[in-house]
Amino acid sequence: MTQRSGLALAVLALAAERPMHPYRMQQLIRERGKDQVVNVGQRSQLYKTIDRLVRDGLLVEQATERERARPERTVYAATEAGVRTAVAWTVEMLTAPRRDFPEFTAALAYLPLITPETALEALEARLASRRAELERLRADLAGAGHLPRLVLIEGEYAVALLETDVRWVTSLVDDLRNGALAWNREDLLELAEKFEDT
């Protein structure tokens, strides 16, 4: 069975919409702003995903196109099994998401490796970046207000997540600035040794 992924779902959804070649799939993902939630930065990953979907009978080669002065392009269509799989994946992703392991959470888990001052500097940089991203996303949504909400729903969710992230990191930065959150590496190492002895 093909491994479920956001990119595989996007490919199946586009090929179910109408048969198309990989370059057009990549273009549409970007044009529709879906590259904010599906990684299509590397075309090789797109082709590997398509190969897996073809291998597993979820996509079929429908035709080969050739435009003037361009190489041949294979056009792919979703099979009935591909459409059923895309629907099943969508429902699964909505109801039972896979556990992911974000780097930020891992960095928080090992915050004691750095000093509170270094943590504050890093988190202030993150906060500035996240605020800028939040403003950009809000502007994008406002600029796309003529589109139906359904095609912008993942943008709404991204804004909600960023708002939460900004709020929480702001609180953490405040705690580091006022000393409510502080640590000393030597004390933490001593504490870790005590726990090992018990």
Automatic annotation (TrEMBL):
Pfam name, any one: PadR
Residue stretches in coiled coil: none
InterPro entries (alphabetical): Metal_resp_DNA-bind_regulator, Tscrpt_reg_PadR_N, WH-like_DNA-bd_sf, WH_DNA-bd_sf
Superkingdom in the source lineage: Bacteria
Domain Transcription regulator PadR N-terminal: 11-84
PANTHER family, alphabetized: PADR-FAMILY TRANSCRIPTIONAL REGULATOR (PTHR33169), TRANSCRIPTIONAL REGULATOR PADR FAMILY PROTEIN (PTHR33169:SF27)
Full protein name: PadR family transcriptional regulator
